[in-house]
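Forum > Structural Biology > Help requests

Title: Can anyone predict the 3D structure of Dioxygenase?

Hi all, first post here. I have the sequence for Dioxygenase but no way to get a structure on my laptop. I'd be grateful if someone could post the structure tokens.
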Amino acid sequence: MTPPRRDDPTPGPTPAAHPGAESTERTISRKTLLRAAVAAGAALPLLSGTVALARDSAVQGRSLPATPACDDGDGPTHDQIEGPYFKPNSPLRTNLVTAGTTGTPLTVSGYVFGRTCVPLAGVLLDFWQADDAGNYDMAGYTLRGHQFTDAKGAFSLTTIVPGLYPGRTRHLHVKAQAPGQPVLTTQLYFPGEPRNTTDSLFDATLLMNVRGAGGGKEGTFDFVLNVVGTPGPGGPTDPPTDPPSGTWAAGRSYAAGDRVTYSGVAYRCVQAHTSMTGWEPPNVPALWRRE
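Reply #1:
Sure, ran it for you. Structure tokens for Dioxygenase below:
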């Protein structure tokens, strides 16, 4: 029997659910103004001469900076509830579309930053969503997958626009975890959706920038994690005097079922991958299961 298609709306403090619900004493930033505009369904505007995201300036014929500014006063990305449809051990992939997938094509791209505006490499991003009819696959891993940000902190997801189901507006679920740091669980929303005003979980700070792209849509969103962040491959700033003992090593190809040890603990590989610094077994539960 298919479980009721409804995310649990009960836990935690009530978010700033709708544009305009925040205190008027809060400093109004460029991102706050932009989110209010797109929440109202407006076209992506130029606000005080600044486009929504720096990479979006490419379509305006301007040069593309290496990375956009990560924060202008809004703070780290808000967390949201996991809901009842999360499944661990999703496949390692950036494209969730398979031969049988129907719906409006959607790509979502962006960057992951620390609070000091440093792009974060090796961040685990685990996405899951409803299909075009509003159903979640609980038997397999349809429209589920995880990936890692590249050396510039960038990610890109190929999927479809999720369908609607009772009680919720359109949304994507995501878990984000920088190497060795806590997991951020949140949701991403679409501008101009009528149900944005009636969904009790909707948070305007989590709106993507979305534009039409041929027969599909393109979305952008930048995550800001509540970590300081270090440049480079994502390794620790101050490594321990003695490196962790064990058989795990960066730069090796591991297959599902392979067993390694790390700092005296045994782990079993659950997803085939080539290891890299920052993906040590304790940091990436999507790749390694502790035994």
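The radius of gyration is 20 Å. The domain at 67-224 is CATH 2.60.130.10 (Protocatechuate 3,4-Dioxygenase, subunit A).
Shout if anything looks off.
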